[in-house]
Amino acid sequence: MIGEFWSINAPALLIAIPMLGAFATPLLGKMGKTPRNLWILLITALTFATSALLAAEVYTTGPVIYTFGAVDPAVALVSDSGGIPVRIIFNVDAMSAFMALMASVVGLVAGIYSLPSGKMKSGRDGYFSLLLLLLVGILGMVCTGDLFNFFVFLEISSLAGAALVAYRIDKGVAVEAGLKYAFLSSLAGLIFLYAVALLYGQYDSLNIAVIAERMQFGFLDKVALALFLTGLAMKAGAVPMHFWMPDTYSMAPSAITAFLVVSSQASLYGVFRIAFTLYGLRLNYVTVGWFIIILGVLSMLVGVSMAILQENVKRLMAYHSISQTGYMLLGVGVGLAVLGDPAMMESFGLTAMEGGLFHLVNNAMYKGLLFLTAGAIFFRAGTHNLNKLGGLGHSMKLTMLFFIIGALAIAGIPPFNGFSSKLMIYESVFAFNPLLAIIAMVVSILTLASFVKVFHAIFMGPKRGEYAGVNEVPVPMLAAMGILALLTVLMGIFPQQFVDLMIRPAAGALVNQGSYIASVMGGL
Length: 524
Known about the structure:
Layout: H1 2-8, H2 10-29, H3 33-61, E1 64-67, E2 89-92, H4 94-117, H5 124-143, H6 147-165, H7 173-203, H8 208-214, H9 219-236, H10 245-251, H11 254-279, H12 285-308, H13 313-337, H14 342-381, H15 397-410, H16 417-432, H17 434-459, H18 475-493, H19 495-511, H20 513-521
Antiparallel strand pairs: 1-2
Helix pairs in contact: 2-3, 2-5, 3-4, 4-5, 4-11, 4-14, 4-18, 4-19, 5-6, 5-11, 6-7, 6-11, 7-9, 7-10, 8-20, 9-11, 10-11, 10-13, 11-13, 11-14, 12-13, 12-17, 13-14, 13-16, 13-17, 14-15, 14-16, 14-18, 14-19, 15-17, 15-18, 16-17, 16-18
């Protein structure tokens, strides 16, 4: 009975569980640290289990529709609405399920890692409540079938993220970073909301499937598309709208930084959902595709160039996050640019999209791992300054091992997952435009050089006197890093199985606009 209820209501529970957890955490905190920590582990584990259950259903039976408030939530149409869905609808297809599963994995890891990492800080109840609300926002963004509710969840993730960035205060520097993130997020949200208003004024609906079916691609539709892409690219940290990311990522607690990577990728999901599903067949593929490709190339070049110059390890990693976003944009942009040519799409376009989406989840794993290792270093050494670090490999061997795995993965070295997705991007993009593939490979070489420098500065050489008493970080932090390291290795050793199971269905769901519309307008 419970299993059946859980299965039927999985899309709603995916939001309800972490939301309940967020509001109940302060109450559990009154009972002590241990009950609160067990509660966080329970909530994040249940959220992950729900996302896994939902993903399994989607991959075996097709898209899952959930209509809030309906007698039968699996039916999208409401009898008294003239055949138009008017209630809040979640439409979980293979792309949404893929993103939700990734977000819940990182949410679980962030919860585990955070248990000991802030033991000397106050306000831990609020910290965990905000972490769960950030998870709510991300999951809502990737599951909703409604543009306005996408905006609502975008705002939830933005507000929770801004508060978490400012959590440490750090003489006002973290607060400044949080305010910068809040301002940027508010601006991006307003731009997105204005685009929603333009479409609502024309089509009398906020449902993505309804608007996609009615889309005329007139002047206002094109203006809305430009606004959508601008606002979401800003939130995703794509160049030239990346200026917030280094301060935000460097000042947030490391577990939150790892989670903010997923939050940015949820905005990237919005870019892809808008381009393929909302506008779909009426889109000028070549123009929009090249726009996304140019954003991707600029992000790669600017991100890696600025990273090389950094002395703060978290700012360096933040710039590499910008660079890695470029690979995702490049792969999916190439797929979009050739979407109108079936021959090129079959030859290399779909592979480029799969590479971009595979790199998205790979980046969440190895970039999250790298940020967690940076947090472990700060936990013991008290600094992120490369000039003040050295010799930590003597006493933090596991952290060093996890850093090596993350560094080799981000540089695209086999057999780690970054190599698998980058190889798919290189091969497919080379068939489209060899120069773009060469640029991508050069960026990977520069990335490797950058992390060799970081590894030497932090872990090599004799142990500094001030770090004589340093030892390894607590077990929960090691466990969190170990989970991401294991996934990074497994996804690199068995890339084809992962692509066949999750990536190819996700790419197919994006390309097949008609299936998305039919799942809502025609029910299931």
